[in-house]
Amino acid sequence: MKILLALDESPHAKEAARWVARCGWPAGSSVLIVCSVRSDLYVTGELYVPASSELDLVIAEDVKRAEALVAAAAPALKERGLLVETRVTRGDPRFSIVDEAKAWGAELIVVGSHGRTGLAKLFLGSVASHVTTHAPCSVLVVKLPAV
Question: What distance in Å separates the CA atoms of residue 63 and residue 127, rounded to the nearest whole number?
Fold first, then answer.
């Protein structure tokens, strides 16, 4: 089975990674851990528009954090006997996840859900909602356990 695990820095994504690690997958299953870095939208508190070189530095730092994130998730999955690949993409996560799933031939996508509703969902968007609607395969949306 080919499982694409989409991560970000949220606790919801960490729960999705734990969920994948806990499941019993068929022998030979592989996981592609993907983290997407947005390179098209940066909000600053400054009154001026930063130079492109400054934005390049911000994006480079985001890429480093994303690389560390996917690398940190890999050992727990490897311990479960899964073959693991990691990838950091650039762009809107909603589209990057679907595009990676298509290109890699994923049979399942696992994403965490923030559970936003109403205006928060409208303005912040919903990666999980977009992925479930446009994915080429089944999608598992993992939520944090109720406290």
Answer: 19
* Domain boundaries of the chain, sorted by first residue: 2-142
CA–CA dist 28, 64 (Å, integer): 29
| pLDDT attached to residue 73 | 97
- The DSSP bridge partners found for residue 18 are none
Q: Which CATH architecture has domain 2-142?
A: 3-Layer(aba) Sandwich (3.40)
C-alpha angle with apex 75: 85 to 136, nearest 5 degrees?
Answer: 35
| Three-class SS state of 33 | strand
User: Which residue has 């799933």 as its token pair?
Assistant: 101
**Structure confidence by residue, pLDDT tens digits, 49-86:** 555 677 778 888 999 999 999 999 999 999 999 999 99
Q: Exposed (0-12), middle (13-18) or buried (19+): which is 59, by Cβ within 10 Å?
A: middle
Measure Cα distances from 125 to 67, 119, 134, 136, 137 in Å: 24, 9, 14, 20, 21
Q: Give the mean pLDDT of the chain.
A: 86
